Amino acid sequence: MAYIRPNELIVSAHNTVAHVINISDEPVIHFPKLKNTIHGESYYIAISDHKYILSDVQNHCLRVINGITGEELFTYGKKGNGPEELEEPRGVCVDKLGNILVADRGNNRIHLLSPDAKFICHLLTEKDGLIGPQKITFDPDDNLVVSEQGLGTIKFFTYDVIIA
Questions:
Q1: Rounded CA gap, 64 and 74, in Å?
Q2: pLDDT truncated to tens, each residue of the chain (164 aa)?
Q3: pLDDT (tens digit, 9 = 90+) per residue, 8-29?
Q4: Can you tell me whether residue 124 is helix, strand or coil?
Q5: Per residue in 97-107, pLDDT tens?
């Protein structure tokens, strides 16, 4: 669940749909079942410039959805451990320039993508001490905050905005 505008939230359902809900009324936008989606874990969601960025755990990819129409604009990744592959992607967030960061839990790394979901680099990996990144966000000082699965660990990393 994520805050969008006053009185609106985006909510992901357990199996394949997401809704933008007006807190005082009915759904504003309904995303029908997204292509190639099967029952699995809920999406992790970030919002940037009228786009909803969803990490699809079950299909090992990231989906970028038009926040007005609900249309899927692009996807990133597939199952694997190569440079542009993901293994159980989890948390997702966006930096000040609209670059997308996604926690690749199964491969112990954070991917940095351009605003149109093109691979830039692996921002953090096991070599940086990352183990099972689960959720990611930025703190008020623009440090990247990463929680790790199962360890109860929260790590802070200095983040310099990268211009794609």
A1: 5
A2: 454 555 555 555 544 455 555 555 544 555 555 554 444 555 788 988 889 899 988 899 999 988 888 888 999 999 999 999 999 999 999 999 999 999 999 999 999 999 999 999 999 999 999 999 999 999 989 999 999 987 778 999 999 876 65
A3: 555 555 444 555 555 555 445 5
A4: strand
A5: 999 999 999 99
Report the amino acid identity of residue 90. Answer: R
Identify the three-state secondary structure at position 25: coil
Q: Using an 8 Å Cβ cutoff, are 32 and 21 in contact?
A: no
As beta bridge partners, residue 153 has 148
CA distance 123 to 12: 27
DSSP assignment letter at 87: S
Q: List the structure tokens of 128.
A: 């940086």
Q: How far apart (Å, rounded) are the C-alpha atoms in residues 10 and 45?
A: 8
**Cα end-to-end span (Å), the chain:** 28
**Among 64, 150, 144, which residue's Cα sits nearest to residue 105?**
150
